[in-house]
Each structure stands twice: as structure tokens, then as C-alpha cells.
Amino acid sequence: MTFISYPREVGIYFLILLLCLVTSCKDKPPKLILASFESEKELDGLVWECGRWFEIIESHATHGRLALKVEIFPKSSSKEPIFRVFLSEKDWSSYNCFRVDVFNFEQIDVPLTIRFIDEDSNEDPEKFYSKIVSISPGQNHINIPVAEIKEGPEKRNLKLHKMSKIAFLVPDFRQKHSLYFDNIVLTR
Predict the structure, then answer these.
(1) What are 15-52's pLDDT values in tens digits?
(2) Would you identify the CATH topology of the domain 29-187?
(3) Closest CA to 100 of 30, 172, 167
(4) Which pairs with CB-CB distance under 8 Å and at least 24 residues apart come from 126-133?
(5) Residue 106: is it exposed, middle or buried by C-beta count within 10 angstroms (0-12/13-18/19+)?
(6) CB of 127 within 8 A of CB of 120?
(7) What residues pair up with 33 in beta bridges, in sequence order?
(8) Most buried of 15, 27, 172, 183 (most Cβ within 10 A)?
(9) Which residues pair with 98 in a beta bridge?
(10) Nearest 10 degrees: Cα torsion 181, 125, 170, 142
(11) Can you give the pTM of this predicted structure?
(12) What distance in Å separates the CA atoms of residue 181 and residue 103, rounded to the nearest whole number?
């Protein structure tokens, strides 16, 4: 049996290439959970103000056992978010879709504003992206393409590698609303 001999440099380059291939092929999860409300600890990041009540409960969960129940009472301010999700995973650049499941207990549609805020936005309305969705009675699966979020406001694109928080708002209304949130995720 004859062996072909190659210069040492070729072997080293081959090993480096092989190492790069192995490390770049790590499977990234197809879904990144941003919030699932499976523990009372997740209540710590919520904005507690008059006119709102938060509770982690077993009803209307779509992932795991629990969901976040949000009760919003009449005359609550619509300028402040009902709650925010502060992001530990800031890089959204490799994901395709933002998803949140919302159950509307009421028998009327409820408008919900979702704000996507990157580290450069400073919660300035001209610098973050807002999407208004109508939450119909019953279970709603809201899907927003990450490419749409990146487009951001008219004056700038959001920096998908520097996302900092998501805020949920309900405009002024004349009656109490109960919404249940669960499974806030990014998907590929």
C-alpha cells in the first residue's frame, strides 16, 4: 500500500477547515422562548400601576402549564405599557418570526399595540417599531415577521443584534378587559 504525502501546511489547513465546519454546524434552536410565564419570578419585570392586575394562572396556557393573566380596568393610561418583556437574548438577526399567543376573554375585539425596542431607541416613538393588532375573542396567535420589525420606524432600521425589550399597550377604553399572554417566542 502506498501513501501519498502532502506538505505539512496542507494538513494544517485541512484541520482548520474541518474545525470551522464542525463549530459552524452547531444546531441553533428553531425557537427561542422570550417569555412563557412558567414562574412567579416573571412578574418581577412587569409595570405595576393602578388600573392593572397581573396573575400567573393555569388557564389559557399554550406552552407549558401557565399563562399571564392581565386585567386592565377602565381609565387606565394608554401611554404607558401594560407590561414589558426585558430581553436576555438581544440578537434576533437569525430568526424569521416573532410570535405571541393572546387569549381575549371579552366578547369584543381589543386593539393591542406591540412595541419593539432596540438599545438605541431610548423608548422614543420615532426610533422604535410599533404594530397594532386586533385581538379577537378567544385564542389569537400573533405572528410578525422579523424583517418587518427590522424595517422599524420611517427614519431608521432597528438593530436586530441589539434588541432590548418588547412592550404591550392597550389604548383608552371604557370597560374592563382580561387578556391572557403566553408563548412569546422567536422562530426560524
Answers:
(1) 555 554 444 445 567 899 999 999 888 887 676 777 78
(2) Jelly Rolls (2.60.120)
(3) 167
(4) 126/153, 126/155, 127/152, 127/153, 127/155, 127/156, 128/152, 128/153, 128/158, 129/153, 129/158
(5) middle
(6) yes
(7) 185
(8) 183
(9) 144, 186
(10) -40
(11) 0.80
(12) 7
